[in-house]
Design goal:
The structure is a homodimer. By secondary structure, chain A is α/β, with parallel strands linked by helices. Helix content of chain A is 29%, strand content 23%. At the A-B interface, helix 3 and helix 4 of A face helix 3 and helix 4 of B.
Chain lengths: 288, 288
Amino acid sequence: LLNANERFFLIDCGEGTQIQLRKYRIRFGKINHIFISHLHGDHIFGLFGLISSFNLVGRTATLHIFGPDQIEELILDHLKFFQNDLSFEIAVHKFQHHRPATILKDSNVEVITIPLKHRVPTCGFLFREMQVPRNIKKEMVEKYSIPIRDIVKIKEGKDYKTSQGKTIPNSELTLPPFRTRSYAYCSDTAYSEDVIEIVKHVDILYHETTFLNKDKDLAAETLHSTSREAAEIASKAEVRKLLIGHFSSRYKSYDTFEKEAQEVFPETTAVNDGDVFSVSRVRGKSMT
Amino acid sequence: LLNANERFFLIDCGEGTQIQLRKYRIRFGKINHIFISHLHGDHIFGLFGLISSFNLVGRTATLHIFGPDQIEELILDHLKFFQNDLSFEIAVHKFQHHRPATILKDSNVEVITIPLKHRVPTCGFLFREMQVPRNIKKEMVEKYSIPIRDIVKIKEGKDYKTSQGKTIPNSELTLPPFRTRSYAYCSDTAYSEDVIEIVKHVDILYHETTFLNKDKDLAAETLHSTSREAAEIASKAEVRKLLIGHFSSRYKSYDTFEKEAQEVFPETTAVNDGDVFSVSRVRGKSMT
């Protein structure tokens, strides 16, 4: 679950998602957008229960579901059996998995697909805050008696020319804008360098690591990644932080995953259910 | 999950069933029979994940799934999207929901449907051990030099006539047979006296109690039962023990459910996930 300025984006929805959301006291009525990376059970089998629960509490807001081509048929088939009379609308947004595309964009956030290499059509998702206008310094408005019509331009980054013909540079008039924060999610996928350009410089990259390097043949065969490969993507994309997960249940302990990745990319954390990671809202130059 | 002499019968399969089975360390590879009472999400949304997991571990044994009419189409539809190449076969057994019927019977157990009153076709299930032959007392075989050809008849309850023409009554030759144990599961349903005859004298009756008596109008409207109604069924059917569950999440505490039922039927327990109830294997007269 991505909380982007109190907008809740649910990314994949495996079996038991609603149970986990309740456990961690997420107000899941706030989820209006669900992004499904691919149609494998561990990424979608929780969707139907969530839809049922939304209906049970009388949800009215439209639920937007993004997913690969087949998702529309799957959802329609499902509703045929279980819910013909939903209390809310479902808007299904299908995406192509061959090239990156902007699938959602408004004044706050942009969501771009990340084509991945898996056994079925699969995309990851890049979430990026939109740049908001600069904040103008109040005292400067007073000092130079700046008229309202010029304020919008200054917020956009323009300098200001006083009635005396003196040019005041924008940097003196405004605070630096907030950095635009970003999060990228890549699961499930074989090692794919095509990802690097898209996730370049993101604040947090989640990348699957189903296997350890010693099982890299198995990773290649099943189109999954090793921990080392995930770290290489993070390193080459120069992201700020790497989160890894999706560990195969064949391993008794997951400690080795973190260690293996950290050898390549030290800023790696192996994640557990319920973990929370935040990216602070700070003023300064965005990396992306 | 019903463990009948180490045969595992799964009864309904809501979202997260496989997660709960793992949590309670149930070896779910031993499940060969799944009984679905009706096609509401909280009774079937865990089936697809369970099928996936069976496939992932390379299950080969046929999985028998029993359910109302539509279940076959639902499962076929599902497999179309997710699994065309299962490592095992699924045998779907559809049942009619209008009258009780034996849907499984072998030398160990018999399963009979219990027609229920709900918003969609719904049946509960009665599981009954089959009567096994009496155990003959070894010392009697020696004492009367009983030939092998007569032993089978004696196990079936016949008396024995010695070569001297003396009749030895069966009760002297054999131990009393084990009682045949029984379990009945009724969810979801409005109060229905049709159930009583079918579940008469069972060792354990599970009956849903979605609502408390104070909300009996809501129970009637949604075709669910109150705690008091479940207890009335148990009392009229003279069962040994009543288990209640399926409490609406509208209630903050479930203590009242147990108290309300116990006023009518003292041998009532409100159940929680992970609870285990056993029926001892004892010799003596069966009640059913």
